[in-house]
Amino acid sequence: MATTSSVGSAGLDVPTLVSQLMAIERQPIDKLNTKISSYQTKISSFGTISGLVSSFQTATQSLSSSFQGFSAASSDTSIFSASAASTAVAGTYSLNITALAQATQLAAAGQASDISAIAATGPSTVTFTVGGINTNITIAAGATLQNIRDTINAANMGVTATIVNSGGATPYRLAISSNSTGVSNAISSITVQAGGDASVNSLLAYAPTVNPPALVTMTQTTAAQNAAFTVNGIAVTSASNTVTTAIQGVTLTLSKVTATPATLTVARDTGAVSKAASSFVDAYNALASKLKSLSAFGSGGTSGGALAGDGTVRLMQSQLRDIFNTAASGGTLTSLAQVGIAFQADGTLKLDSSKLNSAMASNFGDVTNLFSSATGFATRLDTWATSVISSGNGLIATRTQSLNTTIKGYNDQINKLEIRMKALQKQYTTTYSNLNVMLSSMNSTSAYLTQQLARL
Q1: 287, 151: one domain
Q2: Which H or E run includes 266?
Q3: Phi, psi of 45 (to 5 degrees)
Q4: Which residues have CB under 8 Å from 208's CB, separation 6+?
Q5: How far is CA 54 from the centre of its chain?
Q6: At a CB cut-off of 8 Å and minimum separation 6, what does 333 contact?
Q7: d(CA 54, CA 67)
Q8: Which CATH number is 114's domain given?
Q9: Are residues 36 and 82 in the same domain?
Q10: What tens-digit pLDDT sequence spans the chain (456 residues)?
Q11: Total domains, the chain
């Protein structure tokens, strides 16, 4: 039946009336939607906490690993620089560098043009011997200096060819360099095979160990050479200026021959520990502050945190307190306060770098034990973080799953209520529309009777 909004003076506004009735009927749905919104806010809050726990775990792991680090310092970084790995051994070393590693560099005779054909006939097979390995390339007939350069580079045989413009009547010179330094990576020969173009042979031939000398047409501008130096008087050679095997766990980068010996100092990297400890304190404070604000109850008209009274948050806070209040074992140091990491009145941590540095200077081993042993604080906090953010059965994953289950239950209730709402809305619309028709009929009857009575 069509909806009638009004009929005569006694007509009803059916759409408005039905809308108002449905607003009352939908109150249970509105309450469920409010609860769902609250639970979704809780889930979002746990997501924030999960990110902070993950950051705290990263800082904890970095702090633990920082105790394995060493620093390597050069007395003159213009001569050499150095870095140390966890396998290094603390000590002082004297370095005297007598030679730096070099790569073979060759230069061909100058040409008037780099785009004119050099190879009159062809093809020419050219054999490069680099680091004891022979590689053949083919120079096509009519190849220019640029073509020859590109053919050499395309072979990827450990050398690089370029063209240098030196000026003058024949300025274009092909330059070939070994990609790696050291005698073992030298360019020992370049040979144009029998039947090759004479111009290509005149340009590239380089066989200094073969007679007659006429076979050498390229000029060696730099000879391959190994780096040579001493460590505490012990002679060392290297094909590269980056040396990783001379001193255990230390990488040396040689830059200049020494006039007088330079000094390398390898020591525990206490600076890295201090930096990691500062990051650890910052990460904990960020996590603790967020847990505190999200779980706070409202007072004085202010609203509480999204997780006020939540049991999972209270458990996390309790577990953290237990870890920090339980002493480490196995050394003379048992609490973080002994190395300058202490709690403040507001529940945050504060780092006293001077106290930490003093503890490391006097007893580095016990400081390491305090954090990194089986009962160390970093070890236990790392385990705790895993138990909280594990995707399987971690505290946050379990709580989030519970919240999602509750939300699903509420949505199921809403779906059932929505079906009832549709039926109710249809019922109300039919009922009040029929009432409108009846009122209209009564109005018509009343008007008729009034007219008849007036005639009487």
Answers
A1: no
A2: strand 262-268
A3: -65, -40
A4: 189, 216, 220
A5: 14
A6: 339, 359, 363, 366, 367, 369, 370
A7: 21
A8: 2.60.40
A9: no
A10: 444 444 444 467 888 888 888 889 889 998 999 899 999 999 999 999 999 999 999 999 999 999 999 999 999 999 999 999 989 999 999 999 999 999 999 999 999 999 999 888 779 999 999 999 999 999 999 999 999 999 999 999 999 999 999 998 999 999 999 999 999 999 999 999 988 899 999 999 998 876 655 567 899 999 999 999 999 999 999 999 999 999 999 999 999 999 999 999 999 999 999 999 999 999 999 999 999 999 998 776 677 899 998 999 999 999 999 999 999 999 999 999 999 999 999 999 999 999 999 999 999 999 999 999 999 999 999 999 999 999 888 999 999 999 999 999 999 999 999 899 898 888 888 888 888 777 777 777 777 677 767 776
A11: 3
Give the Cβ contact number of residue 257 at 10 Å: 14
Q: b/e map of 288-314 (b: 16 or more CB within 10 Å)?
A: bebbeebbbeeeeeeeebbbeebebbe
Q: Are residues 179 and 236 in the same domain?
A: no
Q: Are residues 316 and 195 in the same domain?
A: no
Q: How far is CA 146 from CA 139, 185, 218, in A?
A: 11, 25, 17
Q: CB of 197 within 8 A of CB of 171?
A: no
* Together in a domain, 358 and 385: yes
3-state secondary structure of 50: helix
Do 449 and 357 lie in one domain? The reply is yes
Domain hosting residue 30, numbered range: 1-69+270-456
Indicate the length of the chain as a whole number.
456
Are 262 and 274 part of one and the same domain?
no
156 plus 216 within the same structural domain: yes
Tokens for 412, please give them: 């199921």
Give the sheet arrangement for strand 187-192, strand by strand.
133-139, 124-130, 187-192
State how far the Cα of 36 lies from the Cα of 40, in Å rounded to an integer.
Answer: 6
